[in-house]
Amino acid sequence: MKTALYATVIFFITCAIIFFPDASLEASKRGLHMWWNIVFPSLLPFFIVSEILISIGVVRFIGVFLEPLMRPVFKVPGAGGFVWAMGVASGFPAGAKLTARLRQENQISRHEAERLVSFSNSSNPLFIFGAVSIGFFQDKNLGLLLAVSHYLGNVFVGLTMRFWGKDEKKLQKETVHSKPSFKKAFQLMHEMRMQNEKPLGKMLGDAVLNSVQTLLVIGGFIILFSVLNQILSIVHVADIAATFISSLFILVHIPTELSVPFFSGLFEITLGSQLTSQAQAAMLYKVIITSFILAFSGFSVQAQVASILAETDIRFKPFFFARIMQGIFSSLSALILFKPLYIDLLSKNEGYAPAFIFEKTPSFLTEYWLLLSKVGPVITICTLIVYILIYYFRLRNKSGT
């Protein structure tokens, strides 16, 4: 049955691309544009730096001090605090990439990795404030509400997933009851550095190669799901699904005009958020749907995460259910916080609600988003050239020996 299902779906997609080449091409260009201009240049520095920090043991050093917080609250090692912070700063799918890396280094167990990856994947602030709030909704006042709801959803997922899997009692006793110290942290970092006998140049080259390879896979998924989303819209599958979704929305008193944007957002968050902002509905309902879309992260991002986790023994199923939970938590948070974080702040500031409470933050994020859109392609192509050169010289050295 699974083989027949796979064959049918792939055959359907292939026929659709053949019958609608123009629409498929435009969708591919849209996905490539997003990856080329934004995703690649924004994620690359985080991936490279994180790879090096893990290799030289800095993450283990940080983990010693974060252990008293992360272990009792989320039942993950202290190193999970670093992964969580990097996931928030850089966005999807950095949390999954770093979690898989820690698992490959045997720094966390499988159950700990499944807990960690469930709440360390989130949208970065730049996308929420720059693209969604300012770019799609043309309303910088929404940034704070969407961000707080999104990251609160992450926290609630982490607190819920702490009950997932078996406890590693022996390890837990050793870590929880031991007080963090600088001497112990430095000793662990030094031991890991000694285990990794690669020189700094080799580590840097490996970090670039691994990061670029991961980003190339991510780019392929972005383009694929952009085309798939367009095809589903053309063949009216989206309309049929929207009819079913509309009946569910009626039960919870959400406008049915948001059913199509919601369905699109299940596949790709960028298109779903954009269509939601353009829908004819009250702002409250659009914020609730957008919060769910950002938290669910779309099948496109989930496919990226699945490909990363496939290199380890970390199961994808807990991550998928965590995305549904975060969608619910984030939507409820947006509903509860809509008045204090949007309506009240809007009225107090006479139509202006500061995004981070700091006055200059919205303009900074806007300028950074515009700058990234301009210089992103240059960063991407220069990095790909470096990647090709490193790969070429390593192949030549291998053939020479």
From TrEMBL:
The keyword Nucleotidyltransferase does not apply. It holds the Pfam family Gate. The chain crosses the membrane at residues 6-23, 35-62, 74-95, 116-137, 143-164, 203-225, 231-251, 283-308, 320-338, 368-393. Keywords: Membrane, Transmembrane, Transmembrane helix. Residues 39-135 form the Nucleoside transporter/FeoB GTPase Gate domain. InterPro entries: Gate_dom, Spore_IM_YlbJ. This is Sporulation integral membrane protein YlbJ. It comes from Aeribacillus pallidus.
